[in-house]
Amino acid sequence: MTKIAPQPGVMEIALYQGGAAHIDGVANVVKLSSNENPFGPSEAAKEAFRKAAYELHRYPSTDHAGLRNAIAEVHGLDAERIVCGVGSDEIIAFLCQAYAGPGDEVIHTEHGFAMYRISTLANGATPVEVPERDRVTDVDAILAACTDATRLVFLANPNNPTGTMIGEAELRRLAEGLPERALLVVDGAYADYVEGYDGGAALVEACENVVMTRTFSKLYGLGGLRVGWGYGPQHVVDVLNRVRGPFNLSHAALVTAEAAVRDRAWATRCREDNARLRGWLAEALAEHGVPSDTSTANFILARFGSPEEARACDEYLKSQGLIVRQVAGYKLPNCLRITVGDEPSCRRVAHAVGQFKGGAR
Ligand SMILES: *Cc1c(COP(=O)(O)O)cnc(C)c1O
Fold first, then answer.
1. How far is the CA of 85 from the centre of ligand 1 (A)?
2. Which mutation among 34, 36, 89, 165 tests ligand 1's pocket best, with the greatest number of atoms within 8 A of CB?
3. Are residues 217 and 122 in the same domain?
């Protein structure tokens, strides 16, 4: 028996299940399981990535000034209070590493993103799950769950995998009601899909205890590159920059993300396309007897009559070359999360769900 053992908590981590990408024996597969942008990144971003090939022998920038300044200009933020990470996953990890350890509690919501729990356990802290109200964040339940040991409260808004969100007044009520030592993390991975929503930026400006995280993995179509960022009060950003590795982001990642965020026309087009197709898909599924909550993100949480029916529909979709996401691991066993793809993919998935519900199997 080996005496070599990891820190407490580590072996409680359930390995992250990514969205499947292949089906054995099926060609022409459409992947709608990871909330990726079906159109990929902007041409300007791809061009920046190609040019970065000539700089591969150079160490990258350690202060990320170019990318931080671009983000600050586009979003109207203070560049000094932006911190960049290898995906927003890394910002989540930094927050847990810096603020939560053994004996500390970290709150996440019932159907919240898996990385909150994983990063909490990786640092020996205790995850605390709070119920949602019919798949919507319940601010009162979160406030009621807070204790003297609460250090972090993670909330995705819009939420994944539910697609629902709460309003700015509710977010503010949450921030203002937290215990003194707790930090609210508003995960804005899908904020770019919500017209007129700042992802929590104004709340960060107004409060000393709020951090916002954002990503290039969704609207910007750069999930494969791994770039995310956080925005918070100076005292928090100073802490995160201490745990951040100096070369955490490659030059290719930095310049590609910078080009992506500056291409506003592409971002707007992707947001508008998503909104149009999301509405179409939700309606088409509803006509086939598959309801969903109004989604504010780039996916729909399709609800079935039972876990068995959800699994059977998933199997049928697979047989048709369509990969969607089972979300039983998120305590939603009767649901399937379906990413809004391009128009042909949306039509294919709606048609297949219709065939499944019509019994044409
Ligand atoms: C996809 C997603 C992220 C983004 O993770 P990255 O590490 O930036 O790719 C963050 N939070 C939520 C809720 C997500 O769904």
1. 12
2. 89
3. yes
Q: Are 214 and 288 in a shared domain?
A: no
pLDDT in tens, 335-351: 999 999 999 999 999 99
pLDDT value, residue 1 = 79
Residue 3 belongs to some domain of the structure: no
Q: How far is Cα 156 from Cα 48, in angstroms, rounded to an integer?
A: 30
Q: Are residues 227 and 306 in the same domain?
A: no
Domain contains 297:
yes
113 lines ligand 1 (CB under 6 A): yes
Hey, whose CA ends up nearest to atom 15 of ligand 1? 160
**Phi then psi for 237, rounded to 5 degrees?**
-65, -40
Q: How many domains does the chain have?
A: 2
Task: Report the separation in Å between the CA atom of 17 and the middle of ligand 1, taken as the mean of its atom positions.
Answer: 13
